[in-house]
Amino acid sequence: MKKMLLALSLSGALLGGSAAWAENAASAPATEETTTVVATTTEAPVTGSAEAPSAATATPAPAATPKMDSGDTAWILISTALVLLMTIPGLALFYGGMVRKKNVLSTMAHSFVAAAIVSIVWVVIGYTLAFSTTGNAFVGGLDKIMLSGITTEALSGTIPEILFVIFQMTFAIITVAIISGSVAERMKFGAFVAFITIWVIVVYAPITHWVWGGGWLGSDGALDFAGGTVVHINSGVAGLVAAYMLGKRIGLGKESMAPHNLALTVIGASLLWVGWFGFNGGSALAANGAAGYALVTTQVAAAAAAISWGIVEKIVRGKTSLLGLLSGAVAGLVVITPAAGFVTVSGALIMGLIGGVVCFWGISGLKRMLKADDSLDAFGLHAVGGMAGAILTAVFASPFIMGDKAPASVTHQLWIQIEGVLATIAYSAVLTFIILKVIDVVIGIRANSDDERMGLDLSQHGERVE
After folding, report:
1. Hey, CA dihedral for 387, 248, 458, 435, is it positive or negative?
2. What's the distance, Cα to Cα, between the start and end of the chain in Å?
3. 437 C-beta neighbours (distance < 10 Å), count
4. Which region is the signal sequence (predicted)?
5. CA count, 13 A, side-chain hemisphere, 257
6. Rounded Cα gap, residues 33 and 36, in angstroms
């Protein structure tokens, strides 16, 4: 990213320096022997030859012009579709199956409207705030509003920049949709729409810039391969704050809040697992070995976490539930996200095993301690899993995978990772609170008690599942 005339001249000098020979050589067809000489002398030119230019006078070769790679482009096209599949229909089904029947449509509507609204906000202003290089360490500039200046020829690495725009858009979409799991069954639809519109601009885009867009966390050396901080900690913390501000669902602890249709949740979780290959593998931004390794580590971590969650649940509750296995797999996917392209398979296995146990505690013991009605455990799975993954990335980042880009010191990298975790928590929590407070004053954020008892499907959308 960041030599043939000389060889031909040197070859002529070694054969006697004859100008006539050089002219003949230039016009003669290349033979296997002369080709070998050229290749050899290009790698190690002999100095001191009368005709060889000195290091002081040699003209440096021009830097290679970046070119689009069709293989990389094809892979990111596929990955973009896979990541969008994670939200619609993946997360919509995953969340929709876990709520009560009277709220299934409203819950799915959150994921669907997130895809619609974030798509528009992202191209209008989100992308430029996240990835423009004309800004500062905290937020991008405004030179790419409405994708201004991005032509069909513009590149981001070896892929078209316009493709990079929509690939990153799908990350913003699922981040917003994850938050809906914490507010399910009681938040006004209009308030949710207003919230996510503002949140993408003032919370998601700046944190993305910090880590991936040339901002201060990336400059400090924070490692986040595919979104442990940007997506999972960010959304999980926002969800927890929203859950506190909304308050608990009516009847919580007194009425059954059991999932109405776990079959939908199974389908949704399966789509999430498959789609995560685009999420993590696509984050290599190339069709190469790093992408392949990311796929393997993703698969191993998800499987390991499903197993460890199931074992812990059997010990604690006496049975291993299907919902537990699904949640464990998602926990493993979250935990490996910041590390997918940085760790070995053995590292991914250990991270998955740890992730299943930690996230089980996040949705049980920690949830009871926090006393928040995080309806579908967005905080316990995504924020807790994201924190664990970000910190474990420092421990398991491997020179075998990263080469000379691997952290020189585990201790130093650990502090950098913790810095990123704490900064994301603080910024997301404070700004989420402010946004929701303003919306609550203007239009209110919670459905009234009669609407909540009726169910948000009817009260907010005038529809119901038969």
Report:
1. negative
2. 58
3. 12
4. 1-22
5. 15
6. 5
C-alpha distances out from residue 367 to 174, 249, 311, Å: 23, 15, 20
| CATH number given to 78-450 | 1.10.3430.10
Contact 231, 175 (CB under 8 A): yes
Question: In order along the chain (466 residues), what is the average pLDDT of each group of 10 residues?
Answer: 36 36 37 34 34 42 76 97 97 96 96 98 97 94 95 94 97 97 96 98 97 96 96 97 96 90 97 97 96 97 98 96 97 98 97 97 95 95 97 96 92 96 98 98 96 94 89
CA 227 – CA 286 distance, rounded (Å): 17
> Residues 351, 318: contact at Cβ < 8 Å?
no
pTM of the model: 0.85
Helices (H), 184-215: 189-199, 205-212
Nearest to 333 by CA among 242, 387, 272: 272
Cis peptide before 45 (omega within 30 of 0): no
Handedness of CA 184, 444, 237, 428 (dihedral sign): positive
What is the pLDDT, as a whole number, of residue 253? 86
- Decide if 368 contacts 316 (C-beta within 8 A): no
Q: Are 100 and 260 in contact (CB under 8 A)?
A: yes
Provide DSSP, 248-272.
PPTTBTTB----S-HHHHHHHHHHH
61 Cβ contact list (under 8 Å, min separation 6): 3
- Maximum separation of any 2 CA atoms in the chain, in Å: 100
CATH 1.10.3430.10 location in the chain: 78-450
How many whole angstroms separate alpha carbon 88 and alpha carbon 95? Answer: 11
Looking at residue 61, its pLDDT comes to 57
Half-sphere exposure of 56 (CA within 13 A, CB side): 1
Tell me the C-alpha distance between 243 and 383, whole Å.
Answer: 14
